[in-house]
Amino acid sequence: MYEMKKAFKNVAIIGKYNASEMRDSILEMCTFLASEQVTVFLETATASHCNLSGFATLGMDEIGEKVDLAVVLGGDGTMLSVARKLADSHIPLIGVNQGRVGFLTDINSANMLDDMRHLLAGDYTTEERILLNATVFRDGQQIMTGRAMNDVVINKAGMSRLIELEVNIDGQFVHRQRSDGLILATPTGTTAYALSAGGPILHPTLDAITLVPICPHTLSNRPIAIHSNSKVEITLVHGDDAGVHLDGHLQLALLAGDQLLVQRDEKTVSLLHPIGHSHYDMLRQKLNWG
């Protein structure tokens, strides 16, 4: 983590989709920023869902070209979606927590204006978070590619039988495993699904990826952490209804013989935090540590 100073003049406000109850918070943020002589742009869907007018609007495909900061009001799911969509533009993101837990949206809505005042004055730190790129090949042909900020998951659906996977890392055979699936998580994603599956928590700035098996048939099959520059190749050896998910969203149903290549994406996501933000304080509060 390192501190940087920058004046933000054009700011986009993006709210949780289909959440009209957030209208008051979004309007409060827009009004505050305008009073600070900041040019405010409302994301088009946010303005529509919250029935807000009086501010210029931009589509998600325009935000990266016309603003130098995006403020995201919602939960971690909203932040994940926005981060993936704006990754190519690499504009910094600020998260205001309107959800339940909020590992990514660390500014409390009750204090958001005070925190924003400090952030606009340059009192903030920035973190670079890695993304994963996932590509699926079938019969040697690429049939899907996408990004994930939390995790790439290959797993079975419903109550079907275990699936069998072959895992290779940087061209070296690691193992075959029979399980409910496998989670490949960024450090950001180690506090999400991977944590529930028994994986370790990594500091968000580590250059690492974790591989966390989901209910493996062999109990000695444990989570491992590898360098983020590694290339992980997973072959679906057997599975009646396996699929690949990116950040919790089903992308593709898989067939036996399909190969999933997961590696670090060339883009990163910049998250801004108020001065004094502590990853360990956040973990203690969110996970109810003593």
From TrEMBL:
UniProt-listed GO biological process terms: NAD+ metabolic process; NADP+ biosynthetic process
One Pfam family linked to the record: NAD_kinase_C
Listed EC numbers: 2.7.1.23
Cofactor: a divalent metal cation
UniProt-annotated catalytic positions: D76
Reaction equation(s) it catalyzes: NAD(+) + ATP = ADP + NADP(+) + H(+)
Amino acids binding NAD(+): D76, G77, N150, D151, R161, R178, D180, T191, A192, Y193, A194, L195, S196
Gene3D superfamilies: Probable inorganic polyphosphate/atp-NAD kinase, domain 1, Probable inorganic polyphosphate/atp-NAD kinase, domain 2
Molecular-function annotations in GO: ATP binding; metal ion binding; NAD binding; NAD+ kinase activity
UniProt keyword annotations, A-Z: ATP-binding, Cytoplasm, Kinase, NAD, NADP, Nucleotide-binding, Transferase
Subcellular locations according to the entry: Cytoplasm
Gene Ontology cellular component list: cytoplasm
Chief location category: cytoplasm
Domain of life: Bacteria
InterPro entries on file: ATP-NAD_kinase_N, ATP-NAD_kinase_PpnK-typ_C, NAD/diacylglycerol_kinase_sf, NADK
Family statement drawn from the similarity comment of this UniProt entry: Belongs to the NAD kinase family.
HAMAP family the UniProt entry points to: NAD_kinase
Biological role: Involved in the regulation of the intracellular balance of NAD and NADP, and is a key enzyme in the biosynthesis of NADP. Catalyzes specifically the phosphorylation on 2'-hydroxyl of the adenosine moiety of NAD to yield NADP.
Protein name: NAD kinase
Source species of the chain: Candidatus Methylopumilus turicensis
